[in-house]
Design goal:
This protein has 16 helices and 18 strands. The chain is globular, with a radius of gyration of 24 Å. It is of the alpha/beta class. The protein has a 10-stranded mixed beta sheet with strand order 14-17-16-15-13-7-12-11-8-18, sandwiched between helices. A 6-stranded parallel beta sheet has the order 3-2-1-4-5-6, sandwiched between helices. It has a two-stranded antiparallel ribbon with strand order 9-10. The chain folds into 2 domains: about 140 residues, NAD(P)-binding Rossmann-like Domain (Rossmann fold, 3-Layer(aba) Sandwich), CATH 3.40.50.720; about 300 residues, Dihydrodipicolinate Reductase, domain 2.
Length: about 500
């Protein structure tokens, strides 16, 4: 098992991926299914059907997927026997969404298995959101959207509140909300889930997890890569839509949510919704004061020259590749505690991290001590090298007076548990087959997030708004530092080494 604990097999399933020859399917979804197969979680009768406009038969699709596995799965994780087994599960259907004859072919393929009316069907829509509604309508028309069917929606669900509602309405006409899985892969990461366990299975933190003891919270999701081949999509989206509306707000919700009665598929989502509804509304004045948009210029990233965003997309653009926001959760627990959100491309490192900074001690107990002390901080590393670090102040050993020194308590998941952490998609895809919606966004969550983001989008769309430039390979525009410095704070640039 290569260090992984044995996994409980899921039920047999027809797992259909629309966009089956696309980047997401080949880079993430199919490697994730391979790894679940390797760990014994895919039973006999688990079929994978790739659907795309590519003119490929089953054998041609298998060749394509095998090449993708070699490219995207570490060589020490590849097992020739498992690869052959996975390839044997694969089928491909060439389909144009508007061509009824193509839908007949898909219908025949999915109906040709034993007990096909009772089998679990997963339809993963790794395609543009504009196709979500038409695909669901055709699934309904051809009798494929049964009581045992689930549909998975890739982000973004819409581009604003109106389009998100339109997508939700279109999909909701065919599938019950309990069968709709709006996926945010950040919620499948080990450290994100461990945040819930850290908060709610350990009593020592709960008395401190509030405005009495927490000074502020920072959430950073930075990437060293540029937009690359996603330039066309990204130029219509930008960092606010691509990252803040979903990933960063979901992380904020898990940090700030109240303890649910128990951790279950609806109780967790109920509490996350309350956080989104409690976020301080962003008026035009607050947008001007508490948000920063940036765009990377040419620079040096990962030791190599990096082009500007304009050079990568091929034209001058006002699309933001960096966002920093100061906000507040206006409820009893968090009133007055700033939450600082930051995300960007072409930054100094690839890092996703939550930092909870606690307040200084209320009284200096060691007035004649030497050395330095720092505010206690809890760093929760989401990626890479998942883990946690608690920064504390201790006395440095030695005779004489007291010399203070910052130290840390470290938890590396790889070291502590000695086994491989499954990729987020591995966990989430299996949850879809099981029908477990806990780690997926509910319709009201998505629309609440868009409601909060809407005033920022509107203000930034004005002609006078221009993103601030920052050199590739840095921490973003200088104005993002000012956002904290005027509050007497600074970004925490070091976490788990």
């Amino acid at each position: 098992m290569n260090g992984s604990t044995a996994a409980t097999p899921v039920e047999p399933c027809d797992f259909t991926v629309f966009g089956g020859t696309g980047d997401l399917a080949l880079r993430k979804l199919l490697p994730a299914l391979y790894l679940r197969d390797r760990d014994g979680q895919l039973p006999d009768g688990f079929r994978i059907v790739g659907v795309s406009r590519a003119e490929a038969d089953d054998e041609g699709y298998r060749v394509m997927v095998e090449a993708a596995l070699v490219e995207h799965v570490p060589s020490d994780e590849l097992d020739a026997t498992v690869v052959r087994r996975l390839l044997g599960r694969l089928h491909h259907v060439t389909l144009d969404v508007e061509d009824v004859a193509d839908w007949h072919r898909l219908h025949e393929r999915l109906k040709d298995g034993a007990a096909s009316d009772d089998v679990i069907r997963v339809f993963y829509l790794a395609v543009a959101p504009a196709l979500f509604g038409p695909i669901c309508d055709h699934l309904d028309q051809f009798g494929l959207a049964t009581e045992r069917s689930r549909v998975v929606l890739e982000k973004p669900v819409g581009t604003d509140l109106a389009t998100a509602r339109a997508v939700n309405e279109a999909v909701g006409r065919v599938f019950d909300e309990s069968h709709i899985f709006r996926i945010d892969h950040y919620l499948g990461k080990e450290s994100v889930q461990n945040l819930l366990v850290t908060r709610f299975a350990n009593t020592f933190l709960e008395p401190l997890w509030n405005s009495h003891w927490v000074d502020h919270v920072q959430i950073t999701v930075s990437e060293s890569l540029g937009v690359g081949e996603r330039g066309s999509y990204y130029d219509r989206s930008g960092a606010l839509r691509d990252m803040v509306q979903n990933h960063l707000l979901q992380l904020l919700c898990l940090v700030a949510m109240e303890p649910p009665t128990y951790v279950d598929r609806e109780t967790v989502r109920d509490e996350k919704l309350k956080v989104l509804q409690a976020l301080r509304p962003m008026t035009p004045d607050l947008v001007d004061r508490d948000t920063v948009a940036g765009q990377y210029a040419a620079g040096l990233c990962d030791g190599a020259a990096a082009p500007s965003y304009a050079d990568e997309v091929g034209h001058t653009s006002d699309t933001e590749t960096f966002v920093a926001i100061k906000t507040e959760v206006q409820n009893w627990r968090w009133a007055g505690v700033p939450f600082y959100l930051r995300t960007g491309k072409r930054m100094s490192e690839r890092l996703s991290e939550i930092v909870v900074v606690f307040k200084e001690p209320p009284h200096p107990m060691f007035p004649h001590s030497e050395g330095t002390s720092e505010a206690n901080r809890l760093h929760i590393r989401v990626q890479p090298d998942e883990g946690m670090r608690l920064h504390m102040t201790a006395k440095e050993p030695g005779p004489g007076g007291i010399r203070l020194r910052p130290v840390s308590l470290d938890l590396s998941y790889a070291t502590a548990f000695g086994q491989r952490s499954p990729d987020a998609y591995e966990r989430l895809l299996m949850d879809v087959v099981r029908g477990n919606t806990t780690l997926f966004m509910r319709r009201d969550e998505v629309e609440a997030a868009w409601t909060w983001v809407a005033p920022i989008l509107e203000r930034w769309s004005e002609p006078t708004h221009r993103p601030r430039r920052y050199p590739a390979g840095t921490h973003g525009p200088f104005a993002a530092n000012t956002l904290l410095e005027r509050d007497g704070r600074s970004w925490q640039e070091t976490g788990i080494e």
